[in-house]
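Components:
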Amino acid sequence: MPSLKDLKNRIESVKSTRKITKAMQMVAAAKLRRAQDAAEASRPYTERFNAVLSSLAAAVGDSEGAPKLLAGTGSDQTHLLVVMTSERGLCGGFNANIAKLAKSHADKLKAAGKTVKIVTVGKKGRESMKREYADLFIDHVDLSEVKRVGYGNAAGIAADVLKRFDAGEFDVATIFFAKFNSVISQDPTAQQIIPFEVPEGAEAGALYDYEPSEEAILADLLPRGVATAIFSALLENGASEQGARMSAMDNATRNAGDMIDKLTIQYNRSRQAVITNELIEIISGAEAL
Amino acid sequence: MQFELVSPERRLASMEVNAVRIPGADGDMTAMADHAPTITSLRPGILTVEKDGGDEKFAVTGGFAEIGAGVTVLAERALPVGDVTQETFDGWVAEAQTAREGAAGDTVDAAVKLLADLVAMGGEIGLNANQPNL
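Structure:
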């Protein structure tokens, strides 16, 4: 049976934990709004861009000499997995879910006899991927100094990925991130970025004139497409992270509240027991006289 | 005619216009209402929007334009000309220079042209590219 003083100390410490988690929840809520705004603001660009790229890709797709970024290298032996996670923890299962999806993907590819290479973005993913796949791990992109993810960050990652592609280091690239549905639901998602996958139902927009030429514009657009895909994944991830943190901290705050209630009841009971004990002692003392 | 200028990070402009002068990769072109549907890539240059109440100019470093019922310009980086400071411009030039130095094989020509276009654009808006040895 813990003493009254111990109980009191525990109640105090849980109370301060609750204050912290409450504050973190509110900060996450504010950041979530900003992240959602950023994702919203990028949408017109991504939508137009993907529409044009898809119709171009559908038009050029089957012809010979199509760019490698669209047609692929003709092999799918080496896979590059770009695992995007957050720089910070305390956001529930957010990072674990992305890592889990990436791991199951990597295991499946390995079982099929493919070569797997892993690049991570975000510290949390690096830790868990490096632990299990130290031999497959080739690079890490550090965004811990970045306050707000900009297109420049995505373009940097894309340039790095493209350099490796041009050097023939891999045939297929897939990015892993969490798609933001709502505060309580974020879907870990795998999206193939190289070669570019023409979405189903994309039609060749033959009514356009192209300057300089379809092929030249496509060759110009495909690398940008990689950057755009990474950028929107980063933004989705940012919103998902804050959403996950918000609900995790909400849970933590509620749990702390429950714990405080329980401890307070226990404290009151023990206090009552002590008083009763003292009374008994006094009474039996008086009777003995 | 509806004109939209969007960058990956935000929508920069959306307005009703009479004509848009686009710095296309193969040369400037002006799009007016009922222009033939065209998609063109952009070179670094000045995008001029003609509308009632005066022209507006934007500096773009690349991207592409889609001309259909309206004009949509998708630029990775675009700024109203007045907002381009010497500092931003120096950043762009430095980046293009690094790209040129790193270029090899077929990409050299493109990188050199990109830099030259950028310098020309700077001249147009009165910024010095500090490139005497081009």
